[in-house]
Design brief:
Length: 185
């Protein structure tokens, strides 16, 4: 049995959505569950013409799982004054460190790109973390506690268009060989 969730906001015409549903129902055993509230662990909140994507429940689960819930939130995810180095002394449990890094990578991919730099710095030490590395993970988790209710809001404004630039650098001399693509919708 195939279960399909639909976000009617993807298409501009209700007729297209209904035709797609009819086509799928005629070829597959399908059940329409209505509008999705959670998809792939991401909360979908609707308000008038806006959709907000949030993973606050996932952040809370991480914090509770590692016993860092209800701590004083931080305003930044990473302290730029801290210079992490390779562990040369006692180590922190690698499996616990790797679990947290994996959970943070999932957040980066969906709703928390603001922690990408911090996680990128911390993932370098996943093979042999120290207590200093753990302290920085704790700081990052405290930042997430303060921002766990944040999310991405997509609102439909009439004159809004998507704009993106894709830049490829083929060698170290950036200006010698590069290709720039501009995409507009």
């Amino acid at each position: 049995m195939f279960i399909c969730w639909w976000l009617a906001y993807i298409w501009s015409s209700l007729e297209i959505v209904l035709n797609a549903k009819f086509f799928l129902a005629s070829n597959f055993d399908m059940k329409d569950l209505g509008e999705a509230n959670v998809m792939l662990g991401i909360k979908i909140l609707r308000d008038n013409d806006c959709i907000t994507l949030s993973q606050s429940h996932y952040v809370e689960k991480i914090l509770k799982n590692f016993k860092l819930f209800d701590m004083l939130p931080m305003s930044t995810p990473f302290d730029s004054k801290v210079h992490l180095i390779k562990n040369r002394g006692g180590s922190f449990p690698q499996d616990k460190y790797a679990q947290i890094i994996g959970s943070l990578m999932f957040l980066i991919n969906w709703t928390c790109p603001d922690i990408a730099y911090a996680v990128g710095r911390l993932i370098r030490y996943i093979h042999n973390p120290s207590m200093e590395h753990w302290d920085e993970i704790s700081r990052l988790l405290r930042y997430l506690e303060g921002t766990c209710d944040f999310g991405f809001s997509y609102c439909g404004y009439p004159n809004m268009s998507l704009f993106g630039i894709c830049l490829f650098c083929w060698n170290w001399n950036f200006f010698a060989k590069s290709t720039i693509n501009k995409v507009e919708s």
